[in-house]
Every structure is written in C-alpha cells, then in structure tokens.
Amino acid sequence: MATESLDIHIKFPLLKRPLHPTGIWGWMTTIDHKRIGILYGVTAFIMFLTGGVEALLIRTQLIGPDKDYVSAEVFNQLFTMHGTTMIFLAIMPLSAAFFNFLIPLQIGARDVAFPRLNAFSYWTFLAGAIILNLSWFLGGAPNTGWFSYAPLTSSVFNPGNGPDFWIIGLQVLGIASLAASFNFIVTIINMRAPGMTWTRLPLFTWMTFITAILLVLAFPVITVALIELMFDRAFGMNFFNVAAGGTPVLWQHLFWVFGHPEVYILILPAMGIVSEVLPTFSRKPLFGYSTVVLAGAIIGFMGWMVWSHHMFTVGLGPIANSVFALTTMAIAIPTGIKIFNWIATIWKGSISFKTPMLYAIGFIALFTIGGISGVMHSMASSDAQQQDTYFIIAHIHYVLFGGAMMGIFAGMYYWFPKITGRMYDEKMGQLQFWLMFVGQNLAFFPMHFSGLWGMPRRIYTYGPDMGWTLMNTLSTAGAYLVGIAALIFVVNMVKSWRKGELASQDPWDARTLEWSIPSPPPEYNFEEIPIVQDRDDWWERKRSGKAKTAPAAVPVGGGSGGGHGIHLPQPSFWPMVVSIGLFIGAMGLIYNIAVAAIGGAIALIAIYAWSFEPVNEPDEESGH
Amino acid sequence: MLNMIRGSRRQIYLLLTVLLVTLLSACSKESPQSTFDALGPVSQSQLTILWVILGAGAFVFVLVFALLIFATIRYRRKSDDEADPPQIHGNNKLEIAWTIAPAIILIIVAVPTVRGIFFDANPPDDAAFTVEATGHQWWFEFEYPEQGIVTANELHIPVNQAVAVNLYSVDVIHSFWVPKLAGKLDMVPGNENHMWLEADEPGVYFGQCAEFCGESHAKMRFRVVVHTQADFDAWVIAQKQLAAIPTDPLAKEGYDLFIGQAQCWACHTIDGFQRARGSVGPNLSHVASRMQLGAGIMDNTQENLRAWLEDPNSFKPGNVMSRDAVVYADPSKGLSEPQISALVAFLRSLD
Ligand SMILES: [Cu+2]
Ligand SMILES: [Cu+2]
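ok -> structure tokens follow
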C-alpha cells in the first residue's frame, strides 16, 4: 500500500509529499500538534476580534434611544453573527488551541493519536469559519439569532440565503469538532506516559477529556436538527411546518439538548485552565483534586438533564417546568463546590499576582456572579420575568466572558512563554487585565438592571420613555473599554512574540510536565518519555531535587541526544485537501448541487489518498 | 507589586460601593416595564421569589467575595524566595460542608419556586372571562369571545379581576409579556398556551413581544388598559357599536377608498362594513379609540396616522402592510396626498 501511494507521488510530482516543507507550505502541511494549536489559536482570536467588532456595533446602536446607525435587518444579522461567532468560532476553537498545544505535553506524549486527523480538524474549522463569514458578502448574514428558532428559519419567513449559510457552516464546524474530540479522547486514553494514571492527570487534561466526551455526544443532536431544518428549507419537508403538522418546539428541544451541554463545553476547558493557574501561582496543590474532577464529571453528566430551562416560557406546563427547575438548581451544587475548592487552593498559599493569576481570580469572581444569576434563572416562576431580557444577556456574558474568556485569557498569558519561548510584557498585561475587568463589569452589570426593568433582548432600538437609557449607555462605555483592552492584548502578544525577553523552560515555577521541557518545546516534545511518579510530577521532581538530573525515562521511539533518531510522522497535505473538498461541497449545498458533488468527490479522493499514505515514507525510515 | 495590590483593593471597594448603590436603585419604578413595580398577583408572586433568591444569592456573593478578597490580600507572596506554603491536598469535612450547605439553601428556595410555577400557570376558578391573544408579525390581536369584540394592540381588562389569557400565533413564535402584571409566556404556532392576568390598580401597562420574531421584533408592543368595572362595561358597549358610512364628505371619500381602490379591506376588518373583512392586519373597527398606532410604537394622533399611511416601512421595517399592500408594493398605485387625507379622516372617524 505504501508503494501505491508512492506511485501517486512519483506520477504526479505536484502531489509530492512535502517531507521537509518550510514557510507557509510548512504550516499548511504541518501535522505537529503544537503548530496546529497555534493555527487554531491565531484563527480563533481573529474570529474573537470579529465577533467583538460585531458586539461594538450592536452596543453603538444601543448607546441611546432611537438610534439608527444600523438598520433593523443589519442589527439582527449582527447579533446573530456575534453569538454564533463567539461560541463556535472563538471560544470553542480557542479551547481547542489549548487542547492541541497542551494535551500531549501534559500527558508526556510526542503528538496526538491521529496527527493528520488533527490537521483536518483545523482546516475544516477554518472552512466553517469562512463559510459563515462569507454570508456577509453574499446577500446577508444569518438573521435569526444564534439559536435560530423555527419557524422563523423557514423559507416562508426567511427566503434569503442567511439561514443556509448558518446551517451549512455549523454542519462543517460540527465535523471539525467531532474529529478533534475523538482524537483527544483517544489521545488521553492511550497516549499517557507510563505512570500518568487517571488520578495523576493534570486538571486541564481532565476537563478536556470531559469536554471532548460532551462534544461527541452533543454535536450529533444539533446535526440532526440542522439536517431537518435543511430538508425543510431545501426540499419542502415539514419537520417544523405547523401547517403540515410539524412542531416548531421540536427544534427548541433538539437545539437545547445540544445547547446546554454546549455551555459546559465552553466553560469546562476554562475551568481546567484556572485549576492549573491557581496552584502554580499559589505554590500549593489544587485543593481536593478528586472533588474538582468529580464535580466536573457530574456537571458534564447533569448537563444533559436541564435543557428545558431555556424553555421555561414555551408553555411546556407546570410539571415539566418544575422538574427542570429542580434539576437546574441541583447542577449549581457541583459548580459551587468548584468555586470553594479554588478559593481553598489559594487559601494559605503564597500568591504571586502575575497576569495569568489576576485573570484566574477574576474568573472566580465573575463566574460566581454568573453562577448566581444562573441559579436565579432556575426559579422558573420568576424566570418568566427574566427570560429573553437583558438579564439573560448579563448572565451569559458573566458566564462566557467573565467565565470562559477570562479563563482563556489566563491560559494565553500563562502558556505564552511555553508556546513562543518569550515572555509577554507583564506591565501591559496587568494594565490590560484591569481594563478588561472594569470594562466588562461596566458593560455587563448594568444589563441586569436593564433586563429587570423590562428590556427584551434582540431589539434594535428602544424609546427614550423606557427608562433604559442610562444602563445602556453604561454598557456601551464598558464595551468600548473591553475593545481597548482587547487591542492592548493584541499589541502585547505581537510585540512580545517578536522581541519579548527569552523565556526559560519554567518561568512560573509550575507543576505539570509541559514545564519540564524547553520553551518552545522541540518538535518531538520529550527527548525521552518521562515516567510519571506523582500528581504534579514536575513540581515534585523539582522539590525533591531531582529536576536537574535526568528524569526517569524510557526511550520510546528513538534514542536520546538532541532528538536524533526520534521518528515523527511526516507532514501531509491531504487533510487540507479534504477540507477544501468539504468547503466546496458545502458552498455547493447552498448554491448548486453539482458543485456539491464536485466538492464531495475532491474530499473522497483526498481521503482515499490520505488513507494509503504511510505515516513515514519508507525511504526515510532509517534503521527501523 | 505592593502598590498594585493596594490599588486593586481600593478598586474592589469602589466596585462594591457602586454595586450597592446600583442595587438599591434597582427598586426604581420609573421604567414603564420594570418588573420591580409588580402591580398584580402574578407579578407579585414572581417578584417575591426574586427577592428570596436574590437574598440567598447576595449571601453567597458576599461570602465568596469576602473569602476571595481576604485570601488575595492576606496570602500574597511577600518575597520571591518565600518558603513554600504547606502543601494541603484537601479536607473531606470541609468539602462535604460546602456540598451540603448550598444543597440546603437550594431546597429552601425550591419550595416557593414550585409553588409559584403552579400558581402562575393556573387561572383561578373565578376568572372573569377569557381573552384569546394572537401574535402576528408584528402586532397583537385580542379577541373577547364572550363579549364579541376583536381589537388590536390594546388589551382592556377590569381592575381586580382575574382574566384568563389564551395565547396563539399565526406565523412565528412571539412572547406575550406585561412586566408589571405577569411574566411572559410564548405564543407558539400550533400550540395553545394559557396564562392569567390581574391588575390591582386601574391604569395603562406596557407590554412587549419578548421572543425574537423577525425584522421589526423591537417594534412589537402593546398596552394593557385596566379600567374600573363601570368603565370597562362602557368600553365593551362602545366597542360593540358597528361602524356606519360617514357623513363627512372627506371621510366618505376615505371610506370609498378603503373599501374600494386602495384595497385596505383585503387585510383589515371594520365591523359594520360587509366589504371590510380582511384578517391579515389589525381590526380597525374602533381604531380611533386606541391610544397607540403600529403596535404601541407611537401615539394615535392625526399626524402620526398620516405619517404611518405615507410610509409604514419607515416606522416598522419589513412590516407586512408595506410589503404586501398594493398601494405600497406597487408604486404606480401609490396613495396621493389627498387620498391619504381622506383615509385619515375616515379612520379618525372610527371611534
Ligand atoms: Cu442551559
Ligand atoms: Cu417578537
């Protein structure tokens, strides 16, 4: 089989496998989890900025009553794309960036289980991101809100292409997420270094594992919903068409059976990051490791039993509402446990307030507020006054910005030296934290009030007589502050990446394995695969004085000495070609079924070539 | 570093004061849709539960923030070569405590919640009558089967009487919400939802669609007018009057347009005129008696009515009237200024 693929390469020199590619081609064919992680991170951060610009436009429109900087239609597109972008194109892939870069390093592996599948995940994510954003230029972006309730999405009420871009974009992103999740599940189960037992696994790896399982279970549900919607729109089917006996509420059930676990998909990785940062900067182990892991698992499990709390006002009846109110209250318990365990972690510690730590503590503070308003929503009766108002907007932003994004910022600062080999500018980091912290409280706290004062979400304008002006003006001011903070972050990162001070291997005196190797890590990660003896193995090794001596290690996949003789899988462009095929196919589904067939054919051929491509070309396999 | 901490402490105090002040002002009743200004039994029961959970939440908030602030101040690293703190890995008793304590709080708040859910859902047996409320893109229709009245964007009820409201939609999902009287409930096509309203005081209450329903969702509003029983009875009698062909020549001209060439009849009903039986748009039988136009977005004045007829789209982007009515969809059939004057005169006569 290897020969067969070699034949292809010889017959078509253009298709020659890039053995030692450089420059852009190197990035496009890379299957190194670290480079893929960087690709994910940079792309997702650009998407985060895009979603941020959308947010600023929304906030500008709402700065005062009766403004018409944008039209109703454009406003509706803006909030739809803001939500969709932040959730699917920013937070999820930013988490994926960390999964990619860190999981192999944290578990003592040389790469993920399926490196080429990993590259495929990234390129497919990029394809989905491009499809969604192309809609702006091809007749208008989706305009039905990020949960796109039927029947507003039907071709009767929405004849334009917007919903099609939304449906197809999410389907493509779903493929990327599923592939990545399977990859990380297998990696974490199978690729752990000797001695890295489940009870020694770093918290971030644990949360990644739970997140990946949630993703694998949740995405099929929305896939089904999206297929039904697509069939309704494209082929005149009637899943959600009342006139023909369909039920619009079915969409809501399917969406939220996916959507609620999705909330945990967004927050658990951040919780994992925070659980790494707090111990490091307090020089104390995580308080109640097993409890925190278990709480994460329970949250992941119970996340499946609460979806209808998004539907308290749909009219499911008092019995259903009571049941979902109770399950939702119950899920607050494991969440609360985590908060107290984090506080106990820094309690009596030796706390150093570097930027990552500021962000981690900010996370606890703001996530607590979001958690409290979450419990308020579980009171189904009083929630009838909060549902679909700005109070909900306040809640989700305290959870997703104050929570997930703060955690992600903590992680970006924390691992920046490891990823780039350079230190970020600490002063700028501190300033940026405070701007961000003040800015987001100014933006989101007043929304509690505009919501309780009766301001519904998703309105493009309001009158001066409604009493909402002050709170909205404050929110807009806060949003601008957040925007400035985001820019400072970009400046800090770009500047420091190019000429920051060189980082040592372990600048934070940290605890997990990724800090036991150089910054940035060599392509092969570990010269020798470590034998793990403790939870927080690297910390224990340092403290017992063994860090300087060679770590206990087994030579796996090659001998020692600067990585010579370590065999890594070779680059491949096939994963990217499959994604290009998917992209063409997806655009074809929106515009022209023949094009879809061409795209599908490209993808199939590339999958075929990929399957027969050996991990290493035989002529490179010296000595094995 | 030290300055940083001091600074952050000051900032946190500042933040807390700001929070407190805003919290206090939260009881503000100035907004016409403030849920703090609960003026009916349903909204009051919901507000009570809000206060209960807000109390519990404030307790948790203060506890967590106190611990957090104390820890960050007390346990900050004083010098870089400080000795490692004791490596505490956990404490089962503590962890069990902070599992059970929140559970107890939640059980306590669960009781009023469940009671509230059932209270809101079931209209009392002595409900005065039932209103059928239907959501349309982007206006509300109210039908009183017992009284034989159909009106739009203005729900009239007697004070101190429970009124059952059944909710429907003819197109997409909307949500019926009168913040001062009751929490919202969705209007779902193909479903029938039930709720009830009661107001403690006569007055005018603001309502608004709360579920995103398309382009002009922001402009889908309504009013609830609460009367004394006598006023309500009078309103019912007035609403049941049938319209008659106007005697004023200008209004008569408007009438002719309405049931003729302008084709307003295709979408609007006016009780009393055989021809005007349309059901796409609001019932206009007594449009002049209403306080607002265009689903609660502007006062019902002569000028506003005129402006609305000149270009409905500029008030409500995408609305069905400017999209589908011949006089707006087909420029060659557009209304002339005198025609608009005639229609205005006619519509103003429908009180
Ligand atoms: Cu949820
Ligand atoms: Cu609406």
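Chain A touches chain B through 97 residues (CB under 8 Å).
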